[in-house]
């Protein structure tokens, strides 16, 4: 038997895409009267968007899949600060749009979420510091305190 070796980065991308497809179904269930889409550009800051019947984007979701993490043993979970900056810019143009970051903890098959809406009003919920995002260097990341996250109920 031959073991396929895609390399760490490519394997992480394949794993992440698999998890996006799993969570996508739950996002669709949260929006039964709207259309849910993947962003076509795989490098977009957020992964999914929701459009209402007027073809307006009303909600965007970013999914962070994590291996070997138990929610209750972490004080915070992170995502790249570029995603917060993206949401800040979009909120200036459309203050009614919602932005949600999801963490899919695959080891325990649980999803937690945090809704982001205002940098000033929510600054007690997170802090920004350098973190490792899977690349070779440390970059600014948003560390959201887990006490401000909510578990998304997953139903089969």
Written description of the protein model:
The protein is of the alpha+beta class and 156 residues long. The chain has one domain: Trna Endonuclease, Chain: A, domain 1, CATH 3.40.1350. It contains two helices and nine strands, in the order αββββαβββββ. The chain has helices at 8-30, 81-93; strands at 35-38, 48-51, 57-66, 76-80, 98-105, 110-116, 126-132, 138-145, 150-152. Strands 1-2-3-5-6-9 form a six-stranded mixed β-sheet, sandwiched between helices. The radius of gyration is 16 Å and the shape is globular. The mean pLDDT is 89.
Summarize the SSE layout with pairings:
Blueprint: H1 8-30, E1 35-38, E2 48-51, E3 57-66, E4 76-80, H2 81-93, E5 98-105, E6 110-116, E7 126-132, E8 138-145, E9 150-152
Parallel strand pairs: 3-5
Antiparallel strand pairs: 1-2, 2-3, 4-8, 5-6, 6-9, 7-8
CATH architecture: 3-Layer(aba) Sandwich
Number of domains as seen in the coordinates = 1
Cα-atom Rg, whole angstroms? 16 Å
Give the % helix.
10-25%
> What is the CATH level 1 assignment?
Alpha Beta
Number of strands: 9
N-to-C series of helices and strands: HEEEEHEEEEE
Quote the beta fraction: 35-45%
Quaternary organisation: single chain
In which order are the strands of the major sheet placed? 1-2-3-5-6-9
Q: Distance N terminus to C terminus?
A: 34 Å
Number of helices: 2
Overall shape: globular
The low-confidence parts are none
- The third-level CATH topology is Trna Endonuclease, Chain: A, domain 1
Biggest beta sheet attributes: 6 strands, mixed
């Amino acid at each position: 038997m031959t073991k396929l070796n895609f390399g760490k980065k490519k394997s992480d991308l394949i794993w992440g895409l698999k998890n996006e497809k799993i969570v996508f179904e739950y996002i669709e269930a949260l929006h039964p009267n709207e259309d849910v889409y993947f962003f076509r550009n795989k490098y977009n800051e957020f992964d999914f968007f929701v459009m209402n019947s007027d073809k307006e984007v009303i909600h965007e979701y970013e999914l962070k899949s994590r291996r070997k993490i138990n929610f209750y043993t972490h004080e915070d979970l992170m995502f790249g600060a570029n995603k917060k900056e993206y949401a800040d810019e979009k909120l200036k143009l459309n203050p009614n749009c919602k932005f949600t970051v999801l963490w899919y903890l695959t080891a325990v098959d649980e999803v937690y979420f945090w809704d982001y809406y205002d940098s000033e009003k929510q600054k007690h919920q997170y802090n920004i510091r350098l973190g490792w995002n899977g690349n070779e260097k440390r970059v600014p990341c948003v560390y959201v305190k887990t006490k401000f996250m909510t578990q998304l109920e997953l139903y089969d």
